[in-house]
Amino acid sequence: MKPLRLVFLGTAGYYPTEERRTSSIMLPEFGIVLDAGGGFFRVPNYLQTQKLHILFSHCHLDHVAGVNYLFGFGERIQEVNFYGPSPIIKTVNTLMGEQFFPSPPIERPFSTKTFQFSQKQGEFSLVCGGSKVEISFQKFDHPSQKVIGWRLVLEGQSIFYLLDKNVFHNDPALSFAHGADLLIHECVFEAENKEEAIKTGHSYSLGVGEFAKKAMVGELVLTHLTMESFQSPEKILKEVKTVFPRTLLAYDKMARYF
Questions:
Q1: Which residues of 43-53 are buried (b: 16+ CB within 10 A; e: fewer)?
Q2: Does residue 189 contact residue 203 with C-beta atoms inside 8 Å?
Q3: Which residues span the domain enclosing 221?
Q4: pLDDT band of 129, cuts 50, 70, 90
Q5: Nearest C-alpha neighbor of 112 from the set 57, 59, 65, 52
Q6: Is residue 101 over pLDDT 70?
Q7: How many domains is the chain built from?
Q8: What's the predicted TM-score (pTM) here?
Q9: Residue 138 and residue 172: Cα distance in Å, rounded?
Q10: CATH code at 48?
């Protein structure tokens, strides 16, 4: 069995840098993309399918603003499917609307479908690249809105993806993440800034490490760095590894095989 390839297209939070664009992650051989922030522009470099499935975590701009880059992909894409609650789908449709482009409107060279859900959690399956992918989701609290945690099971491997969420004792996300082969989680703050993390609804190093340990995941990858963490990413990584040693720090265009 070929190893699964996961490409980190963008690993920054709300503020990009020369080295880091905002959040987007791709499974090229399956045509699956997790969030479409600024790093989404890199999708054509990795395309292996003519159909894309975009799973959104929430509608903050650093997770959705890249969708209008689809117009620059040409005819390499024939179909794009969007997945998320109605507020996310509404935001995506607005960003791709005529008001954001010159007149006459750009004709879409691809068809689009939207899959909206209102329930707190659910599951569905897709056939991508000839393989079945089991997908489940669950909503979690964030100060401004709910965020979606996504769990994917493909070719016997499981991935759990969760951004813009704090971690805490008896976290409701623990059971959903439990036993995942790969946990992709944000980490914005150092341990000394735990209170700021709680206040803003984001995560801090030791909390993320404890979460990974309690969830008994195989490996942890940290992403969604922001202005608060740009100055000390190695310190954050070191702090997390004191609790959960099997931890990596993502960077743009990093490919992870597992």
A1: beebeebebbb
A2: yes
A3: 5-257
A4: confident
A5: 52
A6: no
A7: 1
A8: 0.94
A9: 10
A10: 3.60.15.10
